[in-house]
């Protein structure tokens, strides 16, 4: 039946080249399959007439016999093509506020413009610790513990340094020892009191801090640091273009890996695949994506 459909397309298009473009098949493949069809039917179906390829008398009888069936196949084929290009469904995405403002918003808005039947439910948080509940859930997170049965696609890595404003340093002085760094007026995005300090990518020290303010949004926390209230651990790329001063720059926190997490399944919803690939490609194309981390 496939070869008969190919034959009918050649008759309608008038040449192998035009039919190959219509069916998106190589001319050599079409020629080989037409020859095989003629051999099976034991009759000549096509012959050249100038630059065109037209049906022989026998070929025309075959074409007339199968034309209505071929038209139905063509209609079904076009419907399948449209369905392949028409993504629909609802995807639930959970990500930190800074991810959304940094690069996710732009990607989501572009997807909604390009795919009218795609819906996205967004939940913004500080750092998601939840597990994907359905096959349409996507979660962006640094923490993939207890997610062994999930797919975790790497997004980007982040390295944090320690920063304060010139106003803060003028009032409290520049820390020159780890003890002085530990006793600074700390501002944090979470309740973690223990900070591992790395030097040359090796764990060098651990300090225990007492946060004076916990604010679970990195951009807002950074604004408080800029106003001279205290010091904070901030992604290094995020401070570019600011007046913040690095404290003991030979030390940093360990690199953090961000992931895009979703349930593993044999047949993945097309809408989910579309959003996953858009997010992965989008973060690759963003300049300095680590500045969007928390």
UniProtKB/TrEMBL annotation:
Give the keywords, sorted. Answer: Coiled coil, DNA-binding, Transcription, Transcription regulation
* Superkingdom assignment: Bacteria
Question: Biological process GO terms, please?
Answer: DNA-templated transcription
Looking up InterPro entries in the UniProt record yields: LysR-type_TF_proteobact-type, LysR_HTH_N, LysR_subst-bd, WH-like_DNA-bd_sf, WH_DNA-bd_sf
Q: What CDD domains does the entry give?
A: PBP2_CrgA_like
Q: Where is the HTH lysR-type domain?
A: 1-56
User: Is-annotated flag, keyword Ribonucleoprotein?
Assistant: no
Q: Is tRNA processing one of the keywords? A: no
MF-aspect GO terms: DNA-binding transcription factor activity; sequence-specific DNA binding
Q: Where are the transmembrane segments?
A: none
Coiled-coil regions listed: 63-90
The family this protein is said to belong to: Belongs to the LysR transcriptional regulatory family.
Protein name per UniProt: LysR family transcriptional regulator
Source organism per UniProt: Vibrio aquaticus
Lineage of the organism: Bacteria, Pseudomonadati, Pseudomonadota, Gammaproteobacteria, Vibrionales
